[in-house]
């Protein structure tokens, strides 16, 4: 008897993509490499939902990896982008919206007096390192194992996110000479940083850190870690860089630094500030930013930087985020979801570690607290893969890697939260056997 196997539209789209795109994707984690199976192709997204090309609906807990904080295709954001588009897509010249969005960000982050817009988080962190080296005249940086700051050469060392997902934390193509200038310490380990500073402090231009790590799963800083880094930077006259690409305007208005007393010298932002368009930025005091061309000797530029569509999307998104109670409501939703996951896992007898700040949260299959990359690697990533597929089958879209954080939006209403929690109850029970 003949068996007819029909491909889903997603499968067919992936086959096609694999012929012309590397691994069928434009960013490795999307390939489902660590969770298995084939990527689902997206047709559209609206509010808390994603719709695939086969007509399935999912409740989204990835939010385009953070930017979709007001929900997908929010009418205010879409209208602002439409209006901007009618005036032209890119000028390669100054437009008023650039200073408008810059003003909102500078006002929200007291550690920043001036910023420069770029197009991606990678560009922001790469430029921030150059700025730190230009300011201090020193060659080395300290980064934390399992933190991910984009794919600039000197930051692709012991990296999280896709590097952790695919087991290639040190990328081919990064020369030993470049890697040697990236000094490594475990996250949350001040003693290790002290030891590096004792030996090499005079060569260290900056310490770069995710103030809440979101690329080795979700890992919070302990109570002394960030303050200790600040003190060490001050003692050794080097700069502290907060990579708030993920946490900026996501965990609080402004970012993580507004929740704590520690202020960085340089901040990198991205994701939410572009409301879904390719926008990122780095900013600091006037003294530091005056190093950047055309005012100073550090060169950095971009044809599409400050693009009018990106600025319009960012301004409209932040106008919604600024409304009173926005972050409180977001945090309440994240907490409710975390409680739901926790209860569902407990009922199934599965140990998980769960945490959240504002609209960012994470869950690791582990019976021990997760404080650093070793702890994250010790988590049960096979269990996460099973959970991922069980949730996908029940219409919930999670990150396709246990090394990523999750994100909720203002558009997630009671019904969607209940639907997610019900799916989690079934999924934890389903993967137990
Ligand atoms: N590495 C990104 C998350 N930390 C994934 C970006 C994407 O695939 O769009």
Number of helices: 14
Pick out the low-confidence regions. none
**What's the helical proportion of residues?**
25-40%
CATH superfamily of the largest domain: Type I PLP-dependent aspartate aminotransferase-like (Major domain)
How many E strands?
14
Main traits of this protein?
Aspartate Aminotransferase, domain 1; seven-stranded mixed sheet; four-stranded mixed sheet; alpha/beta; Aspartate Aminotransferase, domain 2; 14 helices
In a few lines, what is going on in this structure?
With about 425 residues, this protein is of the alpha/beta class. It is built from 14 helices and 14 strands.
Describe this protein's structure:
With 433 residues, the chain is α/β, with parallel strands linked by helices. The chain has two domains: 8-61 and 325-432, Aspartate Aminotransferase, domain 1; 75-321, Type I PLP-dependent aspartate aminotransferase-like (Major domain) (Aspartate Aminotransferase, domain 2, 3-Layer(aba) Sandwich). It has 14 helices and 14 strands. It has helices spanning 9-20, 75-86, 96-108, 121-136, 162-165, 176-179, 190-200, 225-235, 286-289, 308-321, 326-348, 373-378, 381-393, 414-432, and strands at residues 42-46, 49-52, 57-60, 114-118, 140-145, 182-186, 204-209, 239-244, 266-269, 280-284, 353-357, 360-364, 396-397, 406-407. It has a seven-stranded mixed β-sheet, sandwiched between helices. A four-stranded mixed β-sheet has the order 1-2-3-13. Helix 8 links the parallel strand 7 and strand 8. Helix 2 (75-86) packs antiparallel against helix 10 (308-321) and helix 7 packs parallel to helix 8 (225-235). The chain is globular and about 75 Å long. The two termini are 34 Å apart. The mean pLDDT is 96. Residues 27, 29-30, 65, 161-162, 215, 404 line the site of (4S)-4,5-diaminopentanoic acid.
